[in-house]
Amino acid sequence: MLPWLRYIPSRFAKWKRDAQYWFIQDSLMFQRLLGTVVDDLANGVDRPSFGATIIKTQSKHGLSELEQAWLVGDMLAAGGETTSISLQWWILAMLAFPNVQARAHAELDEVVGRGRPPSFADIPFLPYIRAMVKETLRWSPIVPFGVPHASTVDDWYEGMFIPKGTICLQNVRVLNFDTKVYGENVSEFDPSRYLDEKGQVKTLMGGREEGHVSFGFGRRMCPGKHVAEGTLGIDFATLLWGMRFERPEGSQGELDVRTLVQSGPGARPVPFECKMVPRFTEAEALLNVGLNMYE
Ligand code: HEM
């Protein structure tokens, strides 16, 4: 963000020494993780994964061992925290907007029923859950100022000159809370804004199928957006199918849905208490069966 800082020698810049230290730590971790895939392949265990593909195609792409480890590890780093932060904001929304939770429960009962947990095959038939994914990414300030980009040409915006090469941050919260696009109730968590009159998902923003700007802009827009949407969709469906999110007895006062706790590039909500209650007796057992299938 401040490119001139690179000219300050490390001995005067603790943050630079910290970054160098963490580069080594992360490199070791990513190399160790990818090493487990190398060992698996050597032992004849060939499970499909991005890591396995990168290792097997090394002679084509020519990346070094360290570059391969970072390419694969970066997916984990970029996708893990963003998705877990989204889940935290979503659980907060479930507590703060119980009507939304009740509507999602009703959709799951109608479409999936209570005899089995939802699967990916159900997602196309769960428009309210899919709308909830969009609304979570719109409403939650996960990466509040996006990732800095530089303008590629001289530009004018509302009377202001922006020279080529200017570093621009994006005020994601303001864009995602634009009343002209999303209506007056922008600060409410209301997935139904993404549903048309037939109850089907609509995007609200022409040309942006996700319907918000939380995945960034331009050529380096989040390449994991479909993975993120798929993960959140199945997570929301499975968690809501099996349980109800409640505030614990005795919790008082309004939930803080505005304050951001910055952690790395992402922003989490202030820690809050939550009680998770199975929605029906068989839910717990059925989810365990589901989990065992992946062991
Ligand atoms: C809720 C989930 C996610 C959010 C909100 C999110 C958001 C973002 C944002 C704002 C950027 C910067 C885009 C820009 O430069 O304008 C980005 C980049 C990136 N994301 Fe995501 N992301 C999410 C999930 C994921 C997942 C699951 C993966 C991988 C499977 C992933 C991989 C990446 C990578 C590799 C980049 C860097 C792309 C580049 O610089 O060329 N993200 N993401």
Describe the protein in words.
With 295 residues, the chain is mainly alpha-helical. Helix content is 47%, strand content 9%. The chain has helices at residues 14-42, 50-56, 58-61, 65-96, 98-111, 127-139, 172-176, 179-182, 225-242, 281-292, and strands spanning 149-150, 155-157, 160-162, 167-168, 243-246, 260-263, 266-269, 275-278. A two-stranded antiparallel ribbon has the order 1-4. The protein is globular. It starts with 13 loop residues before the first helix and ends with a helix. Its cofactor is heme.
Write the layout of secondary structure elements.
Elements: H1 14-42, H2 50-56, H3 58-61, H4 65-96, H5 98-111, H6 127-139, E1 149-150, E2 155-157, E3 160-162, E4 167-168, H7 172-176, H8 179-182, H9 225-242, E5 243-246, E6 260-263, E7 266-269, E8 275-278, H10 281-292
Antiparallel strand pairs: 1-4, 2-3, 5-8, 6-7
The structure holds protoporphyrin IX containing FE (HEM).
Residues 74-75, 78-79, 82-83, 86, 137, 142-143, 146-147, 214-217, 220-224, 227-228 line the site of protoporphyrin IX containing FE.
